[in-house]
Structure formats: C-alpha cells, structure tokens
Amino acid sequence: xxxILLAEKPSVARDIASVIGSxxxxxxxxxxxxxLVTWAIGHLAELANPEDYSPELKTWNLDTLPxxxxxxxxxxxxxxxxxxxxxKSLLQGKHRLIINACxxxxxxxxxFQYIYHLAGCRLPIKRLxxxxxxxxxxxxxxxxxxxxxxxxxxxxxxxxxxxxxxLIGINGTRAFTxxxxxxxxKGSLSIGRVQTxxxxxxxxxxxxxxxxxxxxxxxxxATFQTNENRVYRGRWIDGGEKNHKINDKTRAExxxxxxxxxxxxxxxxxxxxxKVPPPNLLSLGDLQKKANxxxxxxxxxxxxxxxxxxxxxxxxxxPRTDSRCLTREIETTxxxxxxxxGGISVYQGAVQLLTxxxxxxxxxxxxxxxxxxxxxxxxxxxxxxxQLTPEEHHIFDLIAKTFIACFxxxxxxxxxxxxxxxxxxxxxxxxxxxxxxxxxxxxxxxxEDAEEEALPPxxxxxxxxxxxNTSAKACKSQPPRRYTDxxxxxxxxxxxxxxxxxxxxxxxxxxxxxxxxxxxAAIIERIIQSGYVLRQxxxxxxxxxxxxxxxxxxxxxxxxxxxxxxxxxLIHIEKGTGNPSGFMKEIHSxxxxxxxxxxxxx
Length: 602
Fold this sequence. Notes:
With 602 residues, the chain is α+β, with helices and mostly antiparallel strands. The chain has four domains: 3-146, Rossmann fold (3-Layer(aba) Sandwich); 157-211 and 481-601, Topoisomerase I, domain 2 (Orthogonal Bundle); 216-277 and 411-476, Topoisomerase I, domain 3 (Distorted Sandwich), CATH 2.70.20; 284-405, Topoisomerase I, domain 4 (Orthogonal Bundle), CATH 1.10.290. It has helices spanning 10-20, 50-53, 81-91, 106-118, 135-143, 152-182, 195-211, 249-259, 284-295, 299-311, 328-331, 334-341, 345-352, 390-405, 446-449, 485-493, 502-511, 520-529, 544-552, 555-558, 561-575, 580-601; strands at 3-7, 24-25, 29-31, 35-39, 45-47, 74-76, 97-101, 125-127, 216-226, 231-237, 263-276, 411-422, 425-436, 464-476, 533-536, 539-542. The chain has a six-stranded mixed beta sheet. Helix 7 crosses helix 19, helix 9 packs across helix 10 (299-311) and helix 9 (284-295) crosses helix 14.
C-alpha cells in the first residue's frame, strides 16, 4: 500500500515529488514505489448550488428565500472535473494514509477537508505544513508530519466561514437582485460579507469628496540671510500656537509688508536626534502597498508576481501571509539566506557592509507575532535570478532590500527647528540631517532624497538675519483622496479604526483587518468586474450601480461591524473556545434579516 500526498497546486506537488525522487508521470498524478502525489488545482470540491438541493430553487424567487440548508452538500467544481475524477479515484483506493499538503492556512485546510469528505475517503491523515518550497524546507516538513488533530479547530472555522459566506452571498445576491429588477433595472447584483463593506468604503469616500467644502487661508513666507551669507526660508506662525494659517487676505498682506527688508534674530533653536529602526519585514499587504506606490502595480498583479516567485522560482517564502515577524526556527537559516543574496551583484555591496555575524533588528524574531506563516523573505535559492521578468525583479527587489535592511543598525536623524523673530512676527523653519544612514544605505538613501534639507548646518541661536524677500500664498484645503490599491488595502487591514465597540475593535485587530492577505486582491477585482467600481488611473471611482447597492443594502451588510463580529467568533472557533453551531445560528438569523430588508425594498 502507498501513501497519497495531496497538494493544492501542480507546481507544489512537483516540488515535493522532486525532493522525494524517482517518480513516473501519470495522468493527473505522479507515482513511485511508496507515494502517489496528486494535486487539487484550488477548490476541486465546493458547496453545492441551491438547485442541487431542490430543482425549483434554480429559479430566482423571493418567495423561496431564505435558502438555509439543514445540512450543506458538496459537489465537484465544474471547471476542474477531470482532475477531480483522478483525485477521487486515488482517495477511494486501498492505501496506507493520505498527507494533506494543501497550503498551510485556513483556506488550504478547507480545500483538503471538502475534497476528503466529498470523495468519501476514510484513510488516516497526516499534515504537511510548509512555509517555503525549497528542497530543505520540504525535506524537513516530510520528516516532521503533523497530527491532523492539531488543525481540527482550524478546519471547523474554515467550514463555518465558508458556509456563512454561502448563506449571505446566495440569499443576499438573489434577494437584492430581485428587488433591483422590480424597480425596473436590468442585470444582477452581487452581495458579499467582505465585498459589500469594501465597496461601501469607496462609495462613502466619494460622497465625502462631493460634499466637501474647501477652506481658504493665506500663508506668509520670508527668506532670510545670516551674516555668513547663509540663506534659509521660514513660514509665519501665530505666536506660541504655531498656527500658520491667516484667514484674512488683508492681514496676510500687512504681515508681508511689515517684515519686508527688515532685520530679525534667531530667537529659538531646538535640536533632537531620532533613531529610526529598519522597516518591518513584509507581509503580503505591505508588499502590495509598496508595489502600488513604487511601481503602480495593483493588488492582484503583486500577488500573482509574488506567487510566481514562490512557486515557479522558489526565491521567496510563502507570500500569502499577514505576519511581519520570523520564528526562532527560521532564525537559524538567516545567515545562509543573507550570504546567498550577497552573490547577486545588485545586493553585494549592501551585504558586504554588514558585520561578520549580523543580527536582525529587535522584534524581527518573535514566535508570538507569526500566525500561519512568517514574513515574506528570500529563500536563498538564487539559481533562477536571471530568468525573472522585469516585474518579478521589482517585487523580489522590494523583498530582498527589506530583508537586508533588517540586519543594519538604526538610522540616526537630527531634526532642527528654528524660530526667527522679525519685530513682533515669528517664522518657523524645520530641517533634518541624516547623521548616520544605517539601514537607509540599503535603499540608497531614497528616503532622504525625498526632502531637501531646509536649514544650513551653520545656523546658530541668537544670530542676526536680514529679510531678503517675502510672499503671501493663497491656499485652500483639499478633499480626501480617492482610494488607491495601497490606501484601500491599508483601510481593510486597519478596519478596527471604523468600529467603536471595544471587543469588536479588538477582534478586528487580532484578525488583522477585513478579509485575508490572499482574498483582498480578489475582492477588489470582483467589485471592478461586477461594474461597481472603475479604475481611473490609480484611483477607484464608484459607478452609479455601485452607489445604488450601498444605499440599498441594510446597515449590517455595508458596515464593518458584521465582519468584526464574524472574525471575533471565527478566531474563538479556531482556538477551540468558540461554538460553530452557535455561530451558524446567528448567521441564519442574519440571513433572514437580509432577505426581509430586500423584500421591503421590492
């Protein structure tokens, strides 16, 4: 009898098989004398459609809602039926055991459990938990297969989340589409637990922009020269308040005339040095935000590129992570990874500048800060570096530089503030000087270049100055900016700021926001494909249809409170302290509320 190993994707299955060795390729699987290695291509099995419970449910009708199955059924996914037949045949054979090698996380656990149950498999299970696809990591994981009971509560949470999403998605979509059509509109609406509040964020921002009333004020600037012919510029401030806004144009002109060509004195000078630690290692959200700001890549593009670096090139660790820390176990491999990066010409100089035994920045290694997977870091396998596309190079460069930087010392920056008095008027000047670039060297001082130094270093307290020229500038406040991929992901990650209730706020913080690193990109793409949002350049703009949905659905569906409540309970289920059946009863009640709200709009 043989051992079956089920991976989530063909590429992962091939990587594992290459480590075990001596396989023959079959149709949909690989075989040697001890193993049958096969793959899932994502969700081979999924929750059944309403019509699979009763043929009459194929027709959308408000009278048949809500649809709440007494017991959820599973069915093979239509798009991958051929591979399903292969996997089912293997799982129903007489074998020693099955190894669950699906992705290490809630979704990977769900994929395996649905396949296992739909196939009617009864084989004993072992869990392969991988954070990297390198031969060394695979070999170690195979030698340390996990007891599936360690992940029992994770699978319960995964199934509860899946069933709850089905109930809200199916019933909400059908109910509000029917209400939408009764109002004379055409087409269908798509409702989702995370999708709808994400859309609501974009719509609410657009409403804020439309209702925005700009505030106007004036600012006065003066250019000063010291006795040593050093020149600097200051902005007028209102005494000790350091308020720089003048609401009356006439007053601004009076200040300008009063100080023009006058003499002044440096009345106050403050200096303080700041130690800036290296940036955190990257989670997927961090990587998506950086790539969007630096290269204009959207969230899905960055995820796809990172996935290619992980699966195809084996150059980075598992990318679908929300962690920014590493485990003690990984710490022992860091020197080897760093040395490998030193073999790439573009990083050679930065690696050579490090001490012989560099240590990562404080807080980088923290077992408590790691969830399913540690932060994204290079694996040390650089054999395919010359095969990367320019876009893959961009993503790898962000990861590699952030990794190298974490071994560098803090940057030391001197901040200086000068108040120059001219008669009774005061002007504030701020500047900074990088005393020790530390980790900033890795990024070639890009951060420093962004802001030129405003204060010559020779300026001293109590020095006399003359005013070379003055100017008054008309200013007005700007409306909030529309969301970009980076700012929207940031809002979803920090969704706790939109929730008032303390326990729910903490639940969202613990869950690290709305959605997961892996699903946020898909959610953004879905609301675009559904016609609810347009991309205008790098910004998201809601369509009339998108705005209509947000106005139509009840508050429970468009607010982040619902997701906060769900995540709070799912976290408890994962930890073994929650009640899955109690959670589902609440979802049933919410489903009825959603349908009732749609009926009232029909």
